[in-house]
Design brief:
The complex is a heterodimer of chains A (114) and B (116). Chain A is mostly beta strands. Chain A is built from no helices and 12 strands. In chain A, the strands form 3 sheets. In chain A, strands 2, 5, 6, 10, 11 and 12 form a 6-stranded mixed sheet that branches. In chain A, strands 3-9-8-7 form a 4-stranded antiparallel sheet, with no helix packed on it. Chain B is an all-beta fold and 116 residues long. Classes of the chains: A mainly beta (114), B mainly beta (116).
Chain lengths: 114, 116
């Protein structure tokens, strides 16, 4: 069965430092996509980054990069040079079956300290 | 550029009442989705639609109904509201980019529903 696991309920990071948020997944579907979303305290879901299962290179979007290790079934989010505005809940998600089905992890709450 | 819009933003229902959550997207996306997010949890898929007239159940469809008469609109109907349906509801949409690829979903701002 498909599953997404985020083992870090909460994390602290010092401003301007890098932080890695962990995500592992399980699926038997050969075609899938991995996403990270940010949910600030205002509640909206903001798309950050996407990695396809067939992509050879790790995805990057500005200060966000996705460390994709297919054999280990992990898709960790790396945020470089953390900013106070990065304090939020972060969700890892996986889409499969042609993208119709998406499952989300429980989330990691990130606190950035000044 | 409106993207995905949802109304209302907040609603309080009494047990047994019914209501419709509205969702509209202006990006001409074929696929639309309804999720619920319970406190401290990730999102769970309620229903999805791959085009006008075509809908299917997600992970937690019980107690809900949907319809898709146009590409733009995907309303979610709650019949006989129960306290277990207290949650934040998100609508999302995506555009199919082709075989073998997976589509990024764009979310509306959410509707916070409380059933008392």
């Amino acid at each position: 069965a498909q599953k997404i696991t985020q083992t870090q309920p909460g994390m602290f990071v010092q401003e301007k430092e890098a932080v890695t948020l962990d995500c592992t997944y399980d699926t038997s579907d050969p075609s899938y996509g991995l996403f990270w979303y940010k949910q600030p305290s205002s509640g909206e879901m903001i798309f950050l980054i996407y990695q396809g299962s067939y992509d050879q290179q790790n995805a990057t979007e500005g200060r966000y990069s996705l460390n994709f290790q297919k054999a280990r079934k992990s898709a960790n989010l790396v945020i470089s040079a953390s900013q106070l505005g990065d304090s939020a809940m972060y969700f890892c998600a996986m889409s499969y079956t042609g993208g119709f089905k998406t499952i989300f992890g429980a989330g990691t709450r990130l606190f950035v300290k000044a | 550029n409106a993207g995905v819009t949802q109304t209302p933003k907040f609603r309080i229902l009494k047990i047994g009442q019914s209501m419709t959550l509205q969702c509209t997207q202006d990006m001409n996306h074929n696929y639309m989705y309804w999720y619920r997010q319970d406190p401290g949890m990730g999102l769970k898929l309620i229903y999805y639609s791959v085009g006008a007239g075509i809908t299917d159940k997600g992970e937690v469809p019980n107690g809900y109904n949907v319809s898709r008469s146009t590409t733009e609109d995907f309303p979610l109907r709650l019949e006989l509201a129960a306290p277990s349906q207290t949650s934040v509801y998100f609508c999302a949409s995506s555009y199919p980019t082709g075989t073998g690829s997976v589509d990024t979903q764009y979310f509306g701002p959410g509707t916070r529903l409380t059933v008392l």
